[in-house]
Design goal:
With 323 residues, this protein is an alpha/beta fold. It is built from eleven helices and twelve strands. It has a six-stranded parallel beta sheet with strand order 2-1-3-4-5-11, with helices on both faces. Bound molecules: alpha-D-fucopyranose. The site of alpha-D-fucopyranose has 12 residues, from strand 9.
């Protein structure tokens, strides 16, 4: 107790000297149970510690919760927030709620759209370079097809699809373009639409697609994130399509992927393109904090890159990404 008081006193003194409470920044995410978003929160917390602001983490799984969270932040005298919204079409509504409450904000991961479906350029955004990262997924899959000596005309490409989200569509399009450029026929790309962006939805989507397309001897699988590909891998296993018959590459590289690599037996989850929750969590939180503190707005658009990570090179790739 005494020790805690000693640590707290200088901090308290500095707030009193400034005559102000620490700045409060919200971090709102659409799927708090997903490891990627937990990592973002963790790095945003680290930023708050380093810079001395208060972080308020709020899960916003629905439009109602999103708008309520913004009002709630205002009631708590927050200065701004970072958001990955449950639906990008909420762009205009979020913009209005923030303006009404005098909150500064930027989006992360999923870029917000206006009523006509166009990205709202006035909202600063940090996302992944979706199409490029999708191409890295596609190249990884093509390399595996070749390494295994599979004939292209015997390969089906399972695209777990969530096309209402532009970053998801761009990611899978990148993979499709590389696969078809390498000789895969366009009608071998099988779209399996998922209802949500989690493993269970992908599992259900993959099962339907496998049932309808029993003609392929081998499969490659990809989607917007690791959860999508894990769903496909689990569905394949249920049908006797193990690591010898199905190769999947995800996007993310957080706990979901790492625990798959840690399994004693190799699974169809061959790899993932590791993206940076550190940049997306730490940097966005600092950018909004600096905006609130010194009125310097974040850059309009930041797109981050990724690196293909497999069982074999995971330690090296994670170290390279500062994780
Ligand atoms: C989207 C996906 C997440 C993650 C993030 C970077 O929000 O739903 O899984 O890939 O982009």
């Amino acid at each position: 107790m005494k020790r805690r008081l000693c640590l707290a006193l200088p901090l308290l003194a500095s707030f009193l000297a400034q005559g102000a409470e620490p700045i409060k920044i919200g971090f709102l995410v659409k799927q708090a149970e997903e490891p990627w978003f937990q990592d973002e929160w963790r790095f945003a917390e680290a930023a708050a510690q380093d810079k001395g602001f208060t972080l308020v983490k709020i899960a916003v799984p629905s439009p109602e919760k999103t708008l309520a969270a913004i009002d709630n932040l205002a009631a708590q005298q927050a200065a701004g927030f970072v958001i990955c919204a449950p639906d990008v079409k909420l762009g205009t509504a979020i913009q209005r709620a923030a303006a009404r409450n005098h909150l500064k904000f930027m989006s992360v991961d999923d870029r917000l759209l206006d009523g006509r479906g166009q990205p709202i350029a006035a909202i600063p955004h940090m996302g992944i370079s979706a199409y490029e990262i999708g191409k890295q997924v596609g190249q990884g899959l093509v390399d595996e097809i070749k390494a295994r000596g599979w004939k292209m005309n015997e390969v089906g490409a399972l695209r777990i699809a969530y096309d209402q989200l532009p970053t998801a569509r761009e990611r899978t399009q990148g993979a499709v373009d590389v696969l078809t450029a390498a000789g895969l026929a366009a009608d071998h790309v099988i779209a399996a639409p998922q209802a949500r962006t989690d493993t269970e939805s992908a599992f259900n989507a993959a099962n339907i697609a496998f049932t309808k397309n029993a003609r392929f001897k081998h499969w490659v699988a990809f989607g917007l994130n690791d959860e999508a590909v894990l769903g496909a891998v689990r569905a394949g296993e249920g049908r006797g399509l193990g690591s010898g018959a199905l190769v999947g590459i995800g996007i993310g590289g957080s706990k979901a992927a790492l625990s798959e690599f840690a399994k004693p037996a190799v699974t169809g989850f061959h790899g993932t393109v590791l993206i940076s929750p550190k940049r997306h969590g730490y940097e966005t939180a600092v950018l909004v904090y600096e905006w609130a503190r010194s009125n310097t707005p974040p850059p309009a658009l930041t797109l981050t890159s990724g690196a293909l990570m497999t069982r074999g090179n995971q330690a090296e790739v994670r170290a390279r990404m500062g994780l």
